[in-house]
Amino acid sequence: MTPTKWVRSWNERLPRIPLDLIQVTAAEAAALVRNHDADAALLRLPIDQTGLHAIPLYSETTVVVVPKDHVVTAVEEVTAEDLADELMLHPLDNTLDWAGPPGRQLDDRPATTAEAVELVAAGVGLLVVPQSLARLHHRRDLTYRPLVDAPESRVALSWPEEETTDLMEQFIGIVRGRTVNSTRGPAPAKSPANSPAKSPAKSPAKNQQRGARAPQSGKGRKPRRRS
Question: In this structure, which CATH number among 3.40.50.2000, 3.40.190.10, 3.30.70.3280, 3.90.180.10 belongs to the domain 3-59+154-175?
């Protein structure tokens, strides 16, 4: 994802209110929002949504990261069965809601995706991640292939349930790509119950009909015959 473009849009629309980005691990993000140490977070679903709103933004393909000389690079996509004999790496920060292909696993799991990528490059095993993480940790000696029978990874924007303020609505609109004119704002004030809105005054009926009758002047009349 590219949060810098959201910050740029925010600064254009709300230049007097600063928006700061902080980077945390996937495991820390939800707790950070619940504890009000951050106003919102970008998370991978599913999560424990207790006390949180979460709106899905998009889904991305799940891929397997492999060395460039690995046998699976001969095909365009792979299945979990194709990886049954491989040693699979499951970093602790991987939030994919999937047990992974039925391959062998390391007893000592790598702490981060970055560490797991280093192990793939060393020929230790293979790694299943969302496609954006494969791109983020790109190396010249590694590549990836779509894993067709793995679920897609869903990215969501999350914030506390009680904090759906006008500013949060502004940020939601920016993240979802709304324009300035379509971004949700405060609800318009309602007219008092005893003061209904007035409709434009209509012209009097006699004015609308003016000119419809024939003139009643004496011109053009036949003179009366006198006896």
Answer: 3.40.190.10
